[in-house]
Write a structure and sequence with these properties.
By secondary structure, the chain is α/β, with parallel strands linked by helices. The chain has helices at 7-10, 24-29, 43-55, 58-70, 73-84, 99-110, 122-135, 154-163, 171-175, 193-206, 228-235, 246-259, 266-275, 277-280, 282-293, 297-317, 331-351; strands at residues 3-5, 16-20, 36-37, 89-93, 116-119, 142-147, 168-169, 211-215, 220-221, 224-225, 238-243, 324-327. The protein has two domains: 3-132, Rhodanese-like domain (Oxidized Rhodanese, domain 1, 3-Layer(aba) Sandwich); 138-351, 3-Layer(aba) Sandwich (Rossmann fold), CATH 3.40.50.
């Protein structure tokens, strides 16, 4: 007997693997975080069936799908069987809980594979679940928002704290972008909007402390839009300002974008400069482009910080009232200062 399940029930399973039977292209665009891809059709096969559906009729498309899938059934069964031996439950889904997921679960049911469920509404129902989550968002913890000029070490401080077990919501990591015109340098592929929101929802639900640390961002990170209600929660949060001298910030930016980046591509920097050419002015752009060609990265970054990033940051930060200012010239001392603030203002209440 086929086991149908709503997405809300499936997400409550403790020992469950989600299996996405859509094509690799669909899977790579957006899926349920942590889901495994066991596609019935590859990208080419799916496109072929789609053309038959639109150009001929549904019945012919179904017959072609059956023809293609029938040669894969044994391999599909064995793949599912291997997961059934590792997990108590399997939740199967396609785009909207239609033919692909139902066909697979029917075969697995006939083969007596236990605890296989197909999700009613498929991935579409999961996406609706995420959208509803953010439409009704109300956090039961406080956001501690870390501010600071470019290169001050905000991301490094958060990484250190996260490694030490502090609750951190790393928006840039979820987005696959550092949040500036040069933020995609060295990052092979950005996260889709749908996956960004799914990762963020999961992280929010995982927070068990009365606070979570997050880096200050505008409403966008690259081409990702932060959900409006989460932005409002950030505005209502505790605001920390990290500071560090210009020379230290320049060195940190060089280290992050150039020295530590094995895939550093000067063409990406040129492209970024071109995007802000009008704001820099023609002569300054020309000078920076010349320095870039010579490999004078520290000079390029110093000019960008002084003449582009810092003025814009000073303007945007005027709308905030900061609860504490922390010198992050020495990262470890900066981290200790953040921890002391959290201990005095949150952890004493939490542990008592």
């Amino acid at each position: 007997m086929l086991k149908r399940i709503h997405i809300e029930e499936a997400l409550k399973f403790r020992d469950c693997v989600f299996i996405d039977v859509r094509s690799p292209k669909e899977y790579n665009e957006a899926t349920i975080p942590g889901a495994v891809n066991i596609p019935i059709f590859d990208n080419t096969e799916r496109e072929l069936i789609g053309r038959i559906y639109h150009n001929i009729n549904k019945q012919c498309a179904m017959e072609k799908g059956l023809e293609i899938a029938s040669s894969k059934l044994v391999d599909i069964y064995r793949a599912f069987k291997s997961y059934s031996e590792k997990y108590q439950n399997i939740a199967v889904f396609c785009w909207r809980g239609g033919m692909r997921s139902r066909a697979v679960t029917t075969i697995l049911d006939l083969m007596k594979l236990p605890n296989v469920h197909y999700i009613i509404g498929g991935y579409k129902s999961y996406r609706k679940h995420v959208v509803n989550f953010f439409e009704n968002l109300s956090l039961n913890f406080k956001l501690v928002v870390i501010h600071g000029m470019t290169g001050v070490g905000k991301t490094k401080v958060l990484k250190i704290l996260e490694e030490q077990g502090y609750p951190v919501i790393d928006l840039e990591d979820m987005a696959g972008h550092r949040g500036s015109v040069f933020g995609g340098i060295g990052i092979s592929q950005e996260t889709s909007q749908k996956m960004f929101e799914a990762f963020l929802m999961n992280k929010i639900l995982s927070i068990q402390r009365p606070y979570a640390l997050v880096e200050s961002e505008s409403s966008r990170i690259g081409n990702k839009i932060i959900p409006k209600k989460f932005v409002k929660e950030m505005r209502k949060g505790v605001h920390m300002m990290l500071t560090a001298p210009l020379d230290i910030r320049v060195k940190r930016v060089v280290e992050e974008y150039v020295k530590k980046n094995a895939d550093f591509d000067i063409e990406e920097v040129k492209k970024g400069l071109m995007e802000i050419r009008n704001r820099l002015g023609a002569q300054k752009y020309k000078n920076l482009a010349a320095l870039l060609e010579k490999g004078e990265f520290e000079q390029v970054i110093e000019v960008l910080l002084k003449d582009y990033y810092d003025p814009r940051y000073r303007h945007s930060s005027k709308s905030y009232k900061f609860d504490i200012e922390i010198d992050a010239s020495n990262l470890q001392k900066g981290v200790s200062a953040v921890k002391n603030y959290l201990k005095e203002n949150f952890d004493k209440i939490f542990w008592n």
